What we know:
This protein is α/β, with parallel strands linked by helices. The chain is built from 15 helices and 14 strands.
Amino acid sequence: xxHKEFLWGGASAANQxxxxxxxxxxxxxxxxxxxxxxxxLPIARGVRKYSDVPEGLYYPSHEAIDFYHHYxxxxxxxxxxxxxxxxxxxxxxxxxxxxxxxxxxxxxxxFYESVINELLRYNIEPIVTICHFDVPKGLMDxxxxxxxxxxxxxxxxxxxxxxxxxxxxxxxxxSFNEINMLLHKPFTAAGVxxxxxxxxxxVIFTAAHHMLVASALATKRLRExxxxxxxxxxxxxxxxxxxxxxxxDVRVAQIANQETFFFIDVQARxxxxxxxxxxxxxxxxxxxxxxxxxxxxxxxxxxxxxFSYYASRTSKANTEGVDTNTGNAAGGVVNPHLSRSEWGxxxxxxxxxxxxxxxxxxxxxxxxxVENGIGARDKVEVDGKIHDQYRIAYLSAHIRAFKEAIExxxxxxxxxxxxxxxxxxxxxxxxxxxRYGLIYVDKDDQGNGSLKRLKKDSFYWYKKVIETNGExxxxxxxxx
Length: 480
């Protein structure tokens, strides 16, 4: 059985829920510069500059679902579901509006202090991501974001301001959200744009090194400031399967899995894996790593591994004639043995258990599932109800899978924060209609709507799941 201290909850991100993008002295961030529509993906991938777009575009993060003004109402709904924890992120540019300031913005600190206090009032444990796809525009303009080693000191200043302010109130911190997404969407993940005269892998791995050193430094400072707290890393996870048992397919899947784990290898083991050092030599990539940084990485590994899981991935050496429309930034090919979501994502609960085992076998540190869910279109009935049985079916199957990992495989898992507690702006498409939440928010892809909150069927179902500590997962056995 799942232990009674297991942390059931949900997850979110500042840039996808808060809105109020210039209120409280907040500055602009990279995600505030990502428009809805055809320009979003090329900017996200770092191949088009955010400024190279026509005027009049819609920017979903500017209002999002206005959690900034609705947080008390929203947290009350989380408490009604019985949440034991809530994962959210802090917007860096709310604390240091340009990232270049010497002193933090008090209005930003007060907002998050109010959010944390409201959660604690309901005995909901805050799980705080320091940087969830969030870089102040000032640091992008001044330094080129994480291309520059100078970002490390700015991140340290930011993290230390949070640790000092929320000491004793936040037990679980996460340094960077889905840090490996830097490989796929460098602007979204890290505010990094790759210029025409730059070598992509040189830029990516330089930025990666600076982020990894910053994570280790934040871990070190957390232990100095609040030794009772824990620091986690965060992986966008999902096992790569070989498309067939052909050795060529097995090898490309192995390489893809190595690349996925690269960041966490450093954060959890404290050193670069040998294959990536070989890659640097082969591709003439130079990082200018110092002895002090090597020591910092070695001595400040994370306390736990957090990760997201939405789908497994499949690799094939020769993709000619094979469907590659997976809907996922991590790429791969369509797995013919699996069903798919409306947005093309594979649905693979067994893959969840496989992924959990792979992460545990590799690191043997406590795990924390901090994102898992399905994007779908929801219909509001005339009576205001939303019957999202497809979401319940997905979540139920995936909860069964991680329960098996706990109960049959003996893997220690700290908690589960599904994605998401409430409808929010989709990170990949910038949509509202691609809904993940247990709570519906009245808003469409063009930004129209009342922002009214409605409870979906999944709200009541998840309340029963939490009440029974994961024992009651059936679709029909819950009261609305």
